[in-house]
Amino acid sequence: MVGGKLTSRRLIVLLARLALGGVFIYAGWMKAREPAAFIRDIWNFRVIPEPLAYWVAAFLPYLEIVTGVALIVGPRRRGAHAWAAVMLLGFSGLILSAWLRGLDIACGCFGADASALSTSYPLMLARNLLLLGLLAISILVPLRHRPAGSAPDKAPLTPPPP
Amino acid sequence: MRCACEPFAFGWPTRPVCLRDTGMSTLREMLFLLVGAIVPAAVAIFVHPQLADRERAGLRPLEVRLETVADWGDSVLWIDARSPEEFARQTIPGARHFDFDQFDKAIGEILLAWSPNKPIVVFCSAASCTTSEAIARRLREAGLDDVYFLHGGWEAWLAAN
């Protein structure tokens, strides 16, 4: 974590990272516990071939957990931001495609036990939109506030003298 | 004042961040996290009981794949749990209809057609249909041991034939 004074800007960014990372860790853990149910949820989307669903169900929960940990703890956060964006946009696309195809399925986003959260398409998309908002805060809001006219952290790169 | 690595950069001119460098480091970090996820996933594939049997992973306890049923040959008794209209339109050759609303009558008809060592496979209309599973469970509870329901249902059979 970045040391120094806890400003309201920093607090917002840290809370956004904590919430987003926590959601990813929770979602990954719930799926990793019950991979069979997650495989069935993937089958229900009818997007990828069945044998491939096995590998996705075996791997994706751990990518979510690793991404969540990196979002909260810090190292490789840029990569975690990128994975979080890829996953959230991918999941949103899948949910939207299932909605457009009229499929009546659970999303399996938080494992088999969270069916109440996983049955309404507008609710699922709104939830993903909220998570994308948290991601945007984490990426775009700088932790350090630099007053106008102050010196930058690093000297600007200039071409080497001839 | 220009960015040394390329002309287009974030934060120019006060705090230049080269897009090329940012992109490469992001990709490197993504790769690092990917490897970090592959390791526990590889362990889970061998250790987690729900992933260890790759052929049956994701299937429910009484669920069978069409390929498995095909290996059983022609001795299978197919039970069609779809609506009477769908059954009348097209079904698996030799299949018998099962009316879930008249369960006792339907089970009597199934028992007349069944013989020992003849597995029963129930199917319904769609991959997400749960009627076939419910019937298979009820038939098991009624004392029949060799009862299953078809993974993918009627659509799976139609796609394969």
Number of domains of chain B: 2
Low-confidence stretches of chain B: none
CATH topology of the largest domain in chain B: Oxidized Rhodanese, domain 1
**First-to-last CA distance of chain B:** 70 Å
Number of strands of chain B: 7
Q: Tally of extended strands of chain A?
A: 0
Molecular shape of chain B: elongated
The H/E string of chain A reads HHHHH
Mind describing the biggest β-sheet of chain B? 5 strands, parallel
Mean pLDDT of chain A: 83
What does this structure look like?
The complex is a heterodimer of chains A (162) and B (161). With 162 residues, chain A is an all-alpha fold. Chain A has one domain (8-140). Chain A is 65% helix and 0% strand. Chain A has helices at 8-33, 35-45, 50-73, 77-100, 121-140. Chain A is globular, with a radius of gyration of 19 Å. Chain A starts with 7 loop residues before the first helix and ends in a 22-residue tail after the last helix. The model of chain A is unreliable at 151-157 (pLDDT under 50). Chain B is of the alpha/beta class and 161 residues long. Chain B has two domains: 9-52; 63-160, Oxidized Rhodanese, domain 1 (3-Layer(aba) Sandwich), CATH 3.40.250.10. Helices cover 47% and strands 12% of the residues of chain B. Chain B has seven helices and seven strands; from the N terminus they run E-E-H-H-E-H-E-H-E-H-E-H-E-H. Chain B has helices at 19-47, 49-52, 66-71, 84-89, 103-113, 131-141, 153-160, and strands spanning 9-10, 17-18, 63-64, 77-80, 96-97, 120-123, 147-150. In chain B, the strands form two sheets. In chain B, strands 3-7-6-4-5 form a five-stranded parallel sheet, sandwiched between helices. A two-stranded antiparallel sheet of chain B has the order 1-2. In chain B, a hairpin with a 6-residue loop joins strand 1 and strand 2. The longest helix of chain B is centred in the first third of the chain and has 29 residues, at 19-47. Chain B is elongated and about 75 Å long. The model of chain B has no long low-confidence stretch (mean pLDDT 83). The A-B interface holds A 32, 34-36, 39-40, 43-44, 46, 50, 53-54, 57-59, 61-63, 65-67, 70, 76-83, 103-105, 152-154, 156-160 and B 1-5, 13-16, 18, 22, 25-34, 36-38, 40-41, 44-45, 48, 50-51, 54, 57-60, 127-128.
